[in-house]
Amino acid sequence: MKKNLLLFFCLAALPACGGRSNIMLTSEPSIERAFDIINGTSQGKPLVKFLYKNPVRFEYSNTAGMCHKFSLKKGLIFLPGEMKSSDLVLALAAARAAYIYRLYATTGLGEIISEEEELATLFQARLALEINMVNADFEKAKTSAEIKSDFCTYIMESSRYAMAQARREALTPNENCQRPLETLENQRIWLEKLRQAIDEDNFNQLLYERDMERVRRGAMPISEAMKNDAKMRALPTYETYRFQRVFYDDQKAVFSDFEKIYKEEIGGDEAWRRGHKEELDRARGEFSTCNLPGEVN
Q1: In the chain, fewer beta carbons within 10 Å around the N or the C end?
Q2: pLDDT tens, 199-258?
Q3: d(CA 289, CA 275)
Q4: Which residues contact 84 (CB under 8 A, 6 or more apart)?
Q5: How far is CA 114 from CA 119, 166, 184, in A?
Q6: End-to-end CA distance of the chain, in Å?
Q7: How far apart are CA 68 and CA 86, in angstroms?
């Protein structure tokens, strides 16, 4: 009943969304319904507002992989089509991808990294608690095992365990899901190598190798990597040195800002858990067999 009222409220509120009529986040009715659900929550509403101010399109993927995929240079985020059997599970998947996109867009990071997935799994779990997910909701989507597992870890273990699980998933090679992702620490190590690359050819090579790694993960087309390399190698030496200094300073600031946001988001999640103990206790009762051997997802 609570879910039906939530969905009714979301749909009834749509005409009041002045200025959004010309902005479409998706061409898929099921994804539209998912965003209606997200928009009807206290945590999801600011996220949807951000998406309308910084539009990106959500569509179903036509390639293998039970995961979200990003093509942000083209303004696209892909969701697995198999999740359309449950509006609620689809809402959780869309919210997680949208949350990562918001981090990407606001921090200036040049690519999706593991730490973004870690924070996104916390957001997704809190949203699942707010919309009062039950076992039956996950059972409607046969491909929701990973989302349910992450949610179970959050409610039965802790946020730290949930983040560690998300990190393992993000760092496990899976070309269909643009993984493994980079970590913030690896990005910093690479940036330090770039700073030390006084030799112009070595500097260009480091940039090229980074782009080729993105190509291998499926996060960048090889044509873009080749174009970037040709553009850099065509620069005069003094321009290369100038670019190197500016790039280093900019990226160092981006990493520092992201680390601050990362800590703030973790602190915010800890505060949320303290203020929602009843919801956590209810969920633990509903999902008492979570992740136990023999459980069928």
Answers
A1: N
A2: 656 888 889 998 998 888 877 889 999 999 999 888 888 888 888 889 899 999 999 999
A3: 24
A4: 28, 30, 31, 60, 90
A5: 9, 8, 8
A6: 24
A7: 16
Q: What is the pTM of this model?
A: 0.87
Cis peptide bond upstream of 180, omega within 30: yes
Asked whether 205 and 232 are in contact (CB, 8 A), the reply is no
Reading the block at residue 280, the tokens are 């956590």
- Give the Å distances, CA to CA, from 172 to 9, 74, 186: 40, 26, 15
Q: Which of 213, 214, 211, 235 is nearest to 225 (CA)?
A: 211
In 3D space, the residue among 291, 269, 6, 11 whose CA is nearest the CA of residue 132 turns out to be: 6
Beta-sheet pairing, 57-60 with 69-71: unpaired
Structure tokens at 35: 């965003």
Cα–Cα distance between 269 and 145 in angstroms, integer? 23
**72 closest CA partner among 46, 39, 43, 106:** 106
What count of other Cβ atoms lies within 10 Å of the Cβ of residue 74? 10
